[in-house]
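I'm curious: can you give me some protein's one-letter sequence along with its backbone structure tokens because I've never seen that pairing?
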Amino acid sequence: MTSVTPLILCGGSGTRLWPLSRKSYPKQFSALNGQDSLFQQAATRLSGPGFDRPVVVTNSEFRFIVVEQLAAAGIDPGAVLIEPSGRNTAPAILAAGLQIAARDPQTLILVAPSDHVVPKADAFRAAVKAAAPAAMAGRIVTFGIRPDRAETGYGWLELSAPPRDDQTQPLRRFVEKPDAARAEAMLAAGTFLWNAGIFLFSAQTLLEGFATHAPDLIGPVADAVELAEPDLGFLRLAADPWAKARDISIDYAVMEKAANLDVLPFSAGWSDLGDWDAVWRETGTRDGSGNVTHGDAVSIGCTGSLLRAESEGQVVVGIGLHDMIAVAMPDAVLVAPRNRAQDVKQAVAVLKETKARQAEHFPRDHRPWGWFETLALSDRFQVKRIVVKPGAALSLQSHVHRAEHWIVVCGTARVTVGDRVSLVSENQSVFIPLGEKHRLENPGKLPMVLIEVQTGAYLGEDDIVRYEDVYARR
């Protein structure tokens, strides 16, 4: 088989898995069904013999999380493209396709979301191998999942004949997410599959598809690629031309108009983990009453329920619950019937209207140097726990509105305050006056933890003036 270049899309927000998945740290970076994150599972599934290094398309906020998680999985990316703004999947796929085609237009590209679950990776790799001859012959191959229920949360694919595993068949048409009656009818018909949103094609076939069906996208996206700038190992697409590209999905821009579409049926297990009911359904380990628990969660007299405690030191107890979801985080708790799981996105919309921070922001803020979380917040003070990775450093910075007091509780910090550089060990502290230039570094081989106490009239994260930054953040 000709080697395949995986193109992993990694920019979604996954609001239906709120409160665990939020805009600042979406579901693909969480370990929902094992030790590895969904993104790591996707990258691992699309690696090994027959696969080249992956190309990842993400945004500026996630770029360091992407490379950190890939490194932890032992995968070296071929390229990480940074979108200046979200323009949906069509411009993202086209940008990567243009870059890949510049090397070899016959390269096969496998487009895959980063947040799906495929339990049998070997079976999926075999399906990709089976689809490769059609893709090499100029076809666009989409992977259809054999349905086991009348699902209304997925788009469907209609075939002209009953599906045959490991054999490509012409696609008759795409079907939008159906209502319950229509889903039941399609399930009974036996000629419909779920649309997984996974595609295999050559780079040349992709570009021909855009030239035929969405030619207006080629100019701005090609300019964004041509004017892209390297940025610490990433490729940052040019913002001005990128902004001129239409915000449109690959399905609407190309796939639903193309005449060269085939389907490869796949029946070895798949889920997009699109809501909490899917998490309950895809979790293999349940108790005798059909309950799924995670973390310090206790079920008493419950049936068919999902109980998750997402933080250390947090306990969730369910009593007499039937087909319910209970997900607890330090700053938000979700309780809902499992059959209303699709409505969680409505809760996010309501929270956004009220400007609640929990709508989009994760309680733990991830940075290239580590992470921090707020332990206490009031009008004129804030207390944070800050964890700095070995060898990492925060930017040289100052604040206009706040002073800070740092207490090291684990490890040793190298601290710059003005012109003075000192080592601060466990149980020692240092004061950062308002307006003073300062930097925090971890010179050790283990994570360094400190407690930061901020005092001042304004405590927002945008009160930072950067002078130097090893991560070239803007």
User: Anything to note?
Assistant: The radius of gyration is 24 Å.
